[in-house]
Every structure is written in C-alpha cells, then in structure tokens.
C-alpha cells in the first residue's frame, strides 16, 4: 500500500488495492481516460509519486536509458510537447522531436498509419498530438508499439486529465469529499469534460459555472448523474465560491460569442482576482490547464492557493509514469 | 568472415573478403554510392548487421557516447531526419536537430560552407539534406569533419541506396542471381537510379516497368549494360511479375503528366493490390522507399512479402553503421 | 592561479585573483555583461578553458547528467541555438529545443512570464532568445531557475561578448596592451557595443572604423572615455590597419542606407581581402561574429589570422562554463 493508494482508498473505501498491477500497462496504448479503472489510477499515481520524489532527490533516472520516444506533434503545443520531452529525458531516455509535420512527408500525402509504422521502426514509444478527433485510436490500430494520445482535436487528452486529478491529490491529499467548481467555457473545454469523467470515480460534488451559451453538455451531466455525482449549474461564481475546495478555471474564447460586446461583458465576470480569493476557503486550490489569457490575474500567482504552475510540474511526473509503464519499466 | 560477407561472397564468388577494413571510413565523407566498392558494402553491412542484433538484444549502445551529430536539413524530410536521429541515439550519441534552416542565418544570406564550418565547431559529424544538387560535395570540400549526404536535390541519396540493398540482403540472404523489377517513375526517381548502380556490382537481372514518358534514362541503361547487367524494359508489370524476386515500387507524381486524365489512367495500372501479389512468387519481396500515395494498397501491408516497413527499420542500422564508421568507432 | 587568471592578471596587474569564487554564479541569471567584474571574467574563462581541454581529451563530460536545458528561441538563430545545445550535450545534459514559438501557446496570447514559469517546471535552466529588448530581464524577474540571455532585440547578448573576449585571450594570450579595431556597422551592432564595454575593463586602445552614418554611439564613447580607454574614429581602415592587433569586422546591412548606390559604394570599401591582410600585422587576429555576407572574402579563410571559425568553437566552451556555473556544477 503506497502513497496514492492510501489516499484514494482511505477516501473511497470502495476497492481494495491490488498490488499485482506490475506490468499491467506494458505495451499498451494510452488513448482515453475511459480505459482507466480506479485501481489503474492508484497505480499510475503511485509510480508518478515515486518519480516525483526521485527527481527531487537525484534529478534524473536511467530507467529508460537507450529507449527512444517519437514525439509526433501534428499541431503545435509547446507546453505538452516540452512536458513529454522532459519526462522522457528525466527517465534517461531520448526523444525524436517532430514538430514540423505540416512541411514533411505528410504534405506529400502520407497517411497517419504509414507515418506511425515508420516511426515505430525507429522508436520504442510514440506520443501523438493531432488536430483530428479519433487520430490516436487510428494510430493505435496500426501501431505495434505503444501510442500515447497527447490530444486529438476535440477528442481526448488523457494525460491532461490524469495530471489534473493528480494535482488535486497532491494539493489536498484526497479526492472524495471535495467540492470541485469548474469555471469558464464548459461546453467546448475538452479538459473539463475529461476531468469530470475521472472525478465520477470518486465521491465528489461538482459545480459548473459558465455563461449560458457555454454550459456543460447535458449528456455529460446525465452520465455523471447516473454515477451518483452531485452536480449544480450556475452563471455566477459567487453562488458557490465559498464552498469550493477546487476551483478549476478555463479559458473563454472570443470566437464563441456572436459579438465582441457580449464577449467582453461575460469575460470580465469570470476573471479571478485577489478579491475572488479573499472570499474563498483558505485551503482552496486554484487550477488552470494553461495557457491563460486574462482569466486569472497575475496578482494571484503568489497566493499559495494558486496551483497552476505546480500543476505543470505534476504533469511531468504523470507522463514519466505513463512512459515507464507502457515500456514495462516502472 | 561474417554475415553479409558470407552472403555476398557466396553469391558473387568474385572477391575474397578483406578483414583489414578497420578504420577505413574514419574521418571520411559519405557523398555518393559511387565511392563504395563491393568490399566496402560488405564491411558496412557487417557493421549494420552487428548493430541490428545488438539493438534487438539491448536496445542501445554507448559507442558514440559524448559524440554530437549536427542534423542539418535545408528541406524537410521527417523520415530521413528521424532515422538519423534514431541511429545516433541508439549508438549513445546526441543530436543537434536543425530543421528550420529557411528561417535562420541562411535567410540572412550565409553560405553553405560557412554554415558547415560553424556546425563542425559544435559537432563531430554533419548529416546534410539540401535541395540543390552538389551541395553535399560542396559541404565536404570545406568541412574538416565527416559529412554524410542525406539527399541533395536530384543528386545522390546514398544512405537510401545502401538501405535498399541491405533490405534485399536481409530479406533474401543474397543479391546475385535475383531478378529485380523496378516499377513506376524510373525517369526522375533518384532512388532507383542509385539502387540500379549499386546492383550493377552483382550478377542480377533488372526489369524496368514504367509509363513511356517515365522510362529509365538511356545513359544509365548503357552504363549497366557495360557492366554486363541483363536489363529489360516494359510498360506492363504482367510481362515480368511472375519471374520477379524483388519488386521495387516508386511513386508516380501527377506533375509529370500533361493532363490529369493521362495521369489517372497510368497511375491506376501501377497500383499493387492483393491481386498483384496473388500472381507473384511466394517469396517475392515488395519494397518501396516511402512515402507511398496509393501505389501500394494498404490491404497488402499484412502480406509477409510487404517489406517496406522493415526497409525503414533496416535504414536505421545502415545509418548507425555509417555514423560509427566515419567516427572511427565501428 | 589558472590559465586565464595568469593571462589577465599578468597583463592588468590590477586585481589579485580570488580563488573563492566557487559557487558564485549558482542559481544566478546571466543577463548582461554589466553584471561581470574582472574577477568574474577570469573565473568564467578558467572554467571555459578547463572544459575546452576536457572536450579535446575526452569529447564530453557527465557533469550535467540528468539536467535539462529549455532552449527557448522566440526568433530563429541556428548558430546561437546550436551552440547552446552542443554546450549542454558536451556536459552530459539534455535539451528541450523550442524553436517554433510563434506557432505555439504564445500565439494563443500567453505572456512570457507564464511561458517561463511553465518551462522552469520542466527544466533546470532556461536559455532565452527574444526579439524584444528587456525580455531577458522580464523572464528573470519571474523565474525561480537560472535564465541565460541569448540575445534580446537590440539589448544584450552577453554570451557573444564573453566569447569574443575569450577569443582574444585564446588567440593572443592577453588583452591589455592590445589595439582593437572595430569595423563596419558600429551604430546598430549590439555585438561591438557589448565587446567595447567588456574591453573597458582592460588597458586597451580601440579604433572605430565605419561609414559616417554608422559611427559608434557618442554616449558609449564617452562612457569608455571615462574609464580611460584610448579611442579613435575613422572612415578608412588604412588609417589604423597596420597598428591593429585585433580586427573585429561586422556586417553592414543594406537597410541602413537610403539608396542601394550608397550602400554598394560603402560596402565595398569595408571588405577584407588577402590584400588587406598583406598590410596587417603577421599576428593580427581577424574576428567576425558571423554570419558574414561578403564583408570578409572567403580567400582569407585559410590565413592563420582568420579566427572567426575558432571564435565559434570558443563560444561552446563559454556557454558550457555558464551552464555549469549557474547550475552549481563547475
């Protein structure tokens, strides 16, 4: 029984921890958060926690020495790309960085399966970011080596959801019993959809705060309802701020609105400032997937409750865990 | 006497294997297939084979630990670029990836010699891909460290030709005695020209199958004729399919034709399908330099005769061999 | 007392060498040449010299094994970027190369402080190249890990100035007593401004040779005057060529002139050819920050006085020294 296992089990009291996970993810693809059981999460978080402590102690490991990651990004994402590169390097492995796909053989018309089969002949594991939903599943269908989905269009971005949940665990040492408030664009935000699904494995309350036109999709609310998750919807953060343990803020994009006036009025009412935090719990955790464009005032950054930069760091440990697990080296 | 040496010598019965090659390529440039004797090929393939087995056993080596490759690509080629990166990393070396040359000092007007002399002050070996024919020779003229040509315009791409020949050896354990059929665009295809020249070192028969306007250049046919190579020309694959041991397919580009109609009629008659393979020898080897854009149906991929993805993997071992050899570490 | 210490002290006779610098730069930012005392320079050059000898002997070290450099280039500079990559790799560290910033989260409107705080959660040190003056200082203000300025607009490029001075030391084994002539665009040339400031720590004479419209800024001349540096200004190199020990040539950009005719007349009068060197001292050192676009004839490259390619190599050792120092590992 380990770190995350203790935390999660102590809270959920639902599942005994199964220590026999060793090798469970070896050779597997990481495509969707739907593939993870609560036990899987515990296992991944335990490995991530171990890596976090070792990085803090010794900087880097040699676990994946000689292993190569093909980091295949069809659309740019410096944040996610760099996080995976750091994760692989902290484990002693090396990276083939492929960021300029639009200029390459793909522009000669090569299919994703061919690109994947080529890269797997060079590397040991493939991380794929693609603008089209379903790309990761397509890649995995043809790949003989593990594919990790780093975001496919409006589809999944499972490592983001895992790092979000891991952040909650790190910051609050539990998940069940917490009240999580999601704020901003809840309609198009891939991040909050995935996190909500993961949270449904725990005993939590979720508040959704958004403009009317950007509400959480009804089918997802129904889905969580079926799992017994308490949910409420609001347009005003004040209604739930005081009870909130985790405030998860997302970006509201101008393009979603019919007029700039409408956008500006809405935008300003969802900006987190020191005034907002003054009314929040002293141990509330303020999260954001980043990049932010004004949704959280920079004046808030030095408040200990501002967890979004720590969230980035936790992401490296999650990705280290996944890389090591699919390569059978955790 | 080793793997490739046995295979090639057993077949060619022309040259005794000279074991005293050690250090032969150290400090040398790899610019053109014309620089290799049959003994050179045997030596390179032996080293490649050794690396193939070691990668399979232990993943990666430390032979080039501390050595740096400057991977200088003036035009994008994810496939070739990634293959060299993987090769260097599998040998324990590191890579300076330079893919965005068009944005850099070159756009300030810097000459290729100056770029090369700068990079050799940082790195131990330079891989160069350039859109202009003769660039590799120009770079080599000014370089004090080894330059490996990774394709210069319609000029040479020697590592591609070497990996093609190595693939034939790997798949059929011999070269001499085989009937090789080259299909598609034989006029502009740098790949088939280089491979044909390399094959002329062996006792083979070569069939050329192409549209009339894309026939193998007459001077190259004359050249091989002078070396005693049996050659035939066709517009229809059926004429030679049954006797073919190696079917080397290349891409036919739309731009070569005066009308789209002409292109489409021709294109379809050179597509490899399961029906094609049904008429081929059971041990025929189907090759393609990739990327493909429809010349080979994806339905064929799972046929054991489809060797094009293995071909990609062999390329890594060839490039490992060349990197180790020019750095005096094979 | 070590290499550079001996050289500098022997010449300057101003400062006793303080051996107790160990750890002095650990955790610090490298933003401006203004932050360095003469003792700092001696210390940095000593470390650089040690690394130069070790690279020559063993190729690479393991000093920064497990450490990660985020190489963040908002504007392309293959030369500087590759030099830092080589420096980190020669020390056994690894690199997250970020060259395509314009396509990434920045284009979503992320601020530099947020990008820096994200990258420091992945890496141990950040090298920053940015088109806006003051960017490095802004980044450093928010960073909790060392930031090294690799050029910020028309602001500073401290590692260039350090490598220039280190080149003079390497080539002439002293600085004080030398006559340095700076040639070309002295008005906009960030490089010559920084070098002049560094040289003012020594007892040197500086000649400025430029077109009238590209003269060294008056305030900088006044500044050096206040430090007792002898300075002269000319439009013609002949006036000072014979007395010159170090000839530092810079590029004259067409955009600085009102007409192409004016540009061409001026440009040609500042081109270094074998004829120029025929009139120069036999031990003169010819430097250029590169890239050059015709200011120095290629015919001059093989003259032993042509030091600009060696200058590039020295840059790697300077950057190795700075990386090791700020990471507390020198």
Explain the overall architecture.
- The structure is a homotrimer of 330-residue chains.
- With 330 residues, chain A is an alpha/beta fold.
- The first copy, chain A, has twelve helices and nine strands.
- In chain A, the strands form two sheets. In chain A, strands 7-6-5-8-9 form a five-stranded parallel sheet.
- In chain A, helix 7 (190-199) links the parallel strand 5 and strand 6 (205-209).
- In chain A, helix 6 (158-172) packs across helix 7 and helix 6 (158-172) packs across helix 12 (308-326).
- The two termini of chain A are 16 Å apart.
- The model of chain A is unreliable at 12-20 (pLDDT under 50).
- The interface between A and B is medium-sized, with 29 and 30 residues.
What is the H-and-E element order of chain A? HHEHEHEHEHEHEHEHEHHEH
What structural class do you assign from the helix and strand content of chain A?
alpha/beta
Order of the strands making up the biggest sheet of chain A: 7-6-5-8-9
Mean pLDDT of chain A equals 90
Low-confidence stretches of chain A: 12-20
Q: Which pair of chains forms the biggest interface, and how many residues does each contribute?
A: A-B, 29 and 30 residues
Proportion of strand residues of chain A: 5-15%
- Number of separate helices of chain A: 12
Globally, the shape of chain A reads: globular
- Assembly level: homotrimer
- C-alpha-based Rg of chain A, rounded: 20 Å
Whole-Å distance between the termini of chain A? Answer: 16 Å
Number of strands of chain A: 9
Largest sheet of chain A: 5 strands, parallel
Measured as a percent range, the helix fraction of chain A is 40-55%
